[in-house]
Design brief:
The structure holds three protein chains of three kinds.
Chain A lengths: L3 E5 H11 L4 E4 L7 H12 L3 E4 L3 H13 L4 E5 L1 H6 L1 H10 L3 E7 L15 H5 L10 E3 L4 H18 L2 E7 H5 L1 E5 L26 E2 L6 H21 L3 E4 L6 E4 L2 H16 L4 E6 L1 E3 L3 H7 L5 E6 L5 H9 L5 E5 L8 H15 L1
Chain B lengths: L1 E9 L4 H14 L3 E6 L9 E9 L13 E4 L2 H7 L8 E5 L13 E5 L1 H8 L5 H13 L4 H11 L8 H20 L2
Parallel strand pairs in B: 1-4, 4-5, 5-6
Antiparallel strand pairs in B: 1-3, 2-3
Helix pairs in contact in B: 1-5, 3-4, 3-6, 4-6
Chain C lengths: L23 H15 L5 E5 L7 H4 L3 E4 L5 H11 L4 E7 H7 L1 H9 L5 E6 L29 H4 L5 H5 L5 E8 L3 H19 L4 E7 L3 H4 L3 H15 L3 E3 L7
Parallel strand pairs in C: 1-2, 1-3, 3-4, 4-6, 5-6
Antiparallel strand pairs in C: 5-7
Helix pairs in contact in C: 1-8, 4-5
The chains are: A alpha/beta, B alpha/beta, C alpha/beta.
Chain lengths: 354, 184, 248
């Protein structure tokens, strides 16, 4: 174990990116993630990297596209309204198979919304966001340490699959401080070389990076090839954690910060003798459908908790079908559920079910 | 040991720093810790607060919804947070700026004339350290020496000159806590 | 036998999809000649727009990236910043650069990005079938200004060179046409200067070509060239636009 330092989630994600070899950052100010570009503006020059404040999220994300074309490890970060503006470039990068890391420190929406933490961008992150048949790899950390670890890994996954990877955080995770160990993590040795990068056609035929296929048969073929890749991602990149699900009558399902609040509710429920467990998806795409079905197999009820009006709950219902009641408790607009509210809901469910 | 505390006051009173010092000291003493600030426009001239959890156990929620302690540096903060304190918990408030008494009789209440003492020491800006001293004195969540060590890490180097004054302010706050305990 | 005329190495040996009488082909060739002359083909990365030149990556024999509509200067920024040794140029039409990409071009110029922009202005949206462009002349008929562009309703055409030359980061800005051999020669010199500006690290460079669209203008190629000289070059004067000196 190395030495732990106390860091804000936003600063930790920036340092993690640098430690993972990220040398290009493009972004635009938006609360509650401003500590990330501020940190990058200080740190990037120290490591010989590029920091550029773009004129908009639209431009910034297209700068990411350009730097990815040049073969760089590149990242951008924003919060919900800014991420909406980036959907154009994200779709193009998915189509052109460009690796990059996008961090969304989610705040309440829709529209300008608010600046407190939320999970209302789940659909946008996991079901498309931009136009076209594509997927991002989406990871939902719940502690600052996990934010650091997954950010570092995200760069490898992006390079491995030639696909944008999104870290779906929230304002609480970005703003909070927690001890974290910055474990240096060299890039995986088995990453494919970026022979496709547009760095100049010196001694090789030219490289072209595009997502344009005017012939529908060719576009279909391209999309089917992408689909094969998504299938591989779905088979190999499912991540989740469980806590006390083995004997649980009620299994809570929550991700990110909400999973921690749900865990606090679980502790109180157990003190009362209620058999409650927690299933925490870490990869939100691919969603751990099978693992959830297995973990919740013995439970009579499932309670999904989100900082939204119910988005991930749809994936939970897909996982469980009609096998058992899937309940939902959510707060929205930047409000977060309290452990007591969740506990009250658990009690209600147990009493109703009994 | 499981402490969940809210430090609250006007923006500029240094309540985020109070929380950071406790958090950092808790980490140095091998505890699990989290620190969660308020942020955004409400910070501009309005009220600021942070929630700190220091625990021997892994910390589930970093959001403090039912604090064991509240340290209120002004009246709006006292009014906002006093109702959330767990029965048997602690309210410390800055008597220099709060002209009402807390409405709770099921918690321990310690009044600290933080601004007045800070003024006596020579700089009203260390009122937060006086209140922090009182909080440490009553709860003993973390050691004072550790807090002083943490100060070196948390404060930027150019402000390290303030550490002796902060130390004095914390000591005065602890005296209040001791006399409050004696009066009990 | 001595070879006196051939295809530049930086130009691919493929037929283009451009309409008869369109001057994209000449402009492509001039760029390719300059790339060859400067000996930078193996360092060059081009960025194609959304518009008629979307398939430019098929016609140049160098690395190429296809950008989304209007974002070529941002993509070029990302490439150049990540790979400063690359020679980066964008190829953009009037809708791409002056309408949807107006923000990106202004900021790339103001930052003095060391990229070269080839701006092809034919006063109309060609690929989508002849709609009004930001550079469509007053009174000019298009499919979305059927009675002729009315500045009271549709606003005034944008003079890109004049606009960008007010920015301190813009190191070289010129407007050219290819309506005559003399103009082609001048245009080639401008393109070379623009690339040299980039190679010397001086800042942002842009060459605006007044180009033709006989198809959507409803003219013969010869009429179209005459319209460029008689109408466009009046509203959009040819020449170099002096850089505004840095203040302070």
């Amino acid at each position: 174990m190395g030495e732990k330092v106390l860091m804000k989630g936003n600063e930790a994600v920036a340092e993690a990116a640098i430690m993972a070899g990220c040398r290009c950052f493009f972004g635009y100010p938006i609360t509650p993630q401003n500590e990330i570009p501020e940190y990058m503006s200080r740190r990037m020059p120290e490591v010989g990297g590029v920091f550029l404040q773009a004129e908009s999220e639209v431009a910034g994300s297209n700068m990411v596209y350009g730097a990815a074309c040049a073969g760089a490890r590149v990242m951008t970060t924003s919060s919900s309204p800014g991420i909406s503006l980036m959907q154009e470039a994200i779709s193009y990068m998915a189509g052109a198979e460009l690796p990059c890391v996008v961090v969304n420190i989610v705040r309440g929406g829709p529209g300008l919304g608010g600046i407190q933490g939320a999970q209302s961008d789940y659909f946008q992150a996991t079901k498309g966001g931009g136009h076209g048949d594509y997927h991002l790899l989406v990871l939902g950390p719940s502690t600052v340490q996990e934010l650091v670890d997954l950010t570092m890994e995200a760069f490898d996954l992006a390079d491995m699959y030639r696909n944008p990877v999104m870290i779906l955080g929230d304002a609480i995770l970005g703003q909070m401080m927690e001890p974290v160990e910055m474990r240096k993590r060299p890039p995986r040795a088995d990453l494919p070389p970026k022979t496709w990068a547009t760095t100049g056609a010196a001694g090789r035929p030219k490289n072209v990076i595009t997502s344009l296929y005017l012939d529908p048969a060719k576009l279909e073929k391209h999309n089917l090839r992408l689909a094969e890749k998504y299938k591989r991602m779905a088979a190999e990149e499912v991540r989740y954690a469980t806590h006390m699900t083995e004997d649980a009558d009620v299994v809570l399902v929550a991700y990110g910060t909400t999973a921690r609040i749900a865990r606090a509710a679980l502790d109180r429920a157990r003190e009362r003798g209620l058999r409650v467990g927690l299933f925490r998806p870490i990869s939100l795409w691919p969603f751990p459908y099978e693992a959830l079905a297995t973990a919740a197999a013995g439970a009579a009820h499932v309670l999904v908790v989100e900082m939204s009006l119910g988005q991930m709950v749809e994936d939970v219902r897909l996982a469980l079908g009609e096998t058992k009641p899937v309940h939902f408790y959510g707060r929205t607009g930047g409000m977060s559920p309290s452990p007591r509210e969740i506990l009250d809901d658990i009690v209600k469910i147990v009493e109703r079910g009994a | 040991m499981h402490e969940e505390v809210i430090f609250a006051g006007f923006g500029g009173q240094g309540v985020l720093l109070m929380g950071q010092l406790v958090t950092y000291a808790g980490m140095m003493e091998g505890r699990n810790v989290t620190w969660m600030p308020s942020y955004g426009p409400e910070m501009r001239g309005g009220t600021a607060n942070c929630g700190v959890v220091v625990s021997e156990k892994e910390i589930a929620s970093p959001l403090v919804s039912e604090p064991t302690s509240v340290v209120a540096m002004n009246r709006p903060s006292l009014e906002k947070f006093q109702g959330m304190v767990r029965p048997g918990g602690l309210i410390i408030y800055n008597r220099s700026l709060v002209d009402v008494k807390p409405a709770r009789n099921d918690v321990r209440v310690v009044a600290v004339p933080a601004n007045q003492i800070a003024d006596e020491i020579g700089d009203v800006r260390v009122a937060n350290m006086v209140a922090l001293g009182a909080y440490l004195g009553v709860t003993r969540v973390v050691g004072v020496d550790t807090v002083l060590e943490a100060m070196k890490k948390v404060l930027p180097e150019r402000r390290h000159g303030l550490i002796p004054l902060n130390q004095q302010a914390i000591a005065r706050g602890m005296e209040i806590a001791v006399s409050a305990s004696a009066a009990r | 036998m001595q070879k006196v005329f051939g295809r530049p190495e930086a130009l691919a040996d493929v037929p283009t999809h451009y309409c008869p009488g369109c001057t994209h082909g000449i402009i492509h060739r001039l760029i390719a000649e300059v790339i060859d002359e400067l000996g930078v083909r193996e360092r060059t990365v081009g960025i194609s727009p959304v518009g008629c030149a979307v398939l430019a990556y098929d016609y140049f024999n160098c690395d190429f990236v296809e950008a989304s509509h209007g974002r070529a200067p941002a993509v070029a920024t990302g490439i150049k910043r990540a790979s400063p040794n690359s020679v980066v140029f964008t190829y953009q039409g009037d809708g791409d650069l002056a309408s949807i990409g107006a923000g990106e071009i202004v900021h790339a110029a103001s930052r003095g990005e060391k990229i070269t922009v080839i701006f092809v202005n034919n006063a109309i949206y060609g690929m989508t079938g002849g709609q009004m462009a930001p550079t469509t002349l007053p009174g000019q008929k298009t499919t979305t200004s059927p009675r002729g562009r009315d500045p009271e309703v549709a606003g005034h055409p944008i003079r890109v060179c004049e606009l960008l030359s007010s920015l301190s980061g813009a190191a070289y800005i010129a407007r050219v046409s290819v309506t005559s051999p003399a103009n082609v020669a001048k245009a080639r010199r401008a393109v070379k200067k623009a690339f040299e500006t980039q190679l010397e690290g001086k800042g942002f460079s842009l060459v605006e070509f007044l180009s033709t669209c006989p198809t959507n203008w409803g003219m013969t190629p010869v009429e179209a060239l005459k319209w460029v000289d008689d109408k466009m070059a009046v509203y959009y004067p040819l020449g170099e636009y002096t850089r505004v000196p840095e203040v302070g």
